[in-house]
């Protein structure tokens, strides 16, 4: 069984697909060359175009000094490839000139002490906030209970007044027999 969309789609020209792939590869390699050139000439002072391609984004940590990187180039020695060899060797020369300082990503003992203190401070803040929430809830519950008691008292007063009025017979009856005041 074929998927519905595969029946309707036109066959892809393999040569066109190769051209697109080659174009994408060349664009990524050009971006990599730009990044290497910026790193070798200005170091970290200049803007490095990491986001110009997926390749340079993937290599950002390696080339930016967050880890060690090795760049290996290969050459074809045939006469028709001399221009490509020269370009590749110039790229390798620029890549060799890149100097990075490896950044240590570990947490030191001093830093861990700071983190422990920060965690303790945050726990204290959380406990204080929880106590305030409980206090506000208690105040709200007390206020609700007070309001309920007042309403019950008003209701009892009105019921008592109504009952007294009924007992005293202060209501008059109209022609239909309904009580009126």
Automatic annotation (TrEMBL):
Domain Kinesin motor: 1-98
Superkingdom of source: Eukaryota
GO molecular function, one term: microtubule binding
Start and end residues of each stretch annotated as Disordered: 1-24
Record flagged with keyword Ion transport: no
Signal peptide location: none
PROSITE patterns: KINESIN_MOTOR_2
GO BP field: microtubule-based movement
InterPro entries (alphabetical): Kinesin-like_fam (IPR027640), Kinesin_motor_dom (IPR001752), Kinesin_motor_dom_sf (IPR036961), P-loop_NTPase (IPR027417)
Keyword tags: Coiled coil, Motor protein
Family the entry assigns: Belongs to the TRAFAC class myosin-kinesin ATPase superfamily. Kinesin family.
PANTHER family registered for this protein in UniProt: CENTROMERE PROTEIN E (PTHR47968), CENTROMERE-ASSOCIATED PROTEIN E (PTHR47968:SF75)
Name used for this protein in its record: Kinesin motor domain-containing protein
Organism of provenance: Phaeocystis antarctica
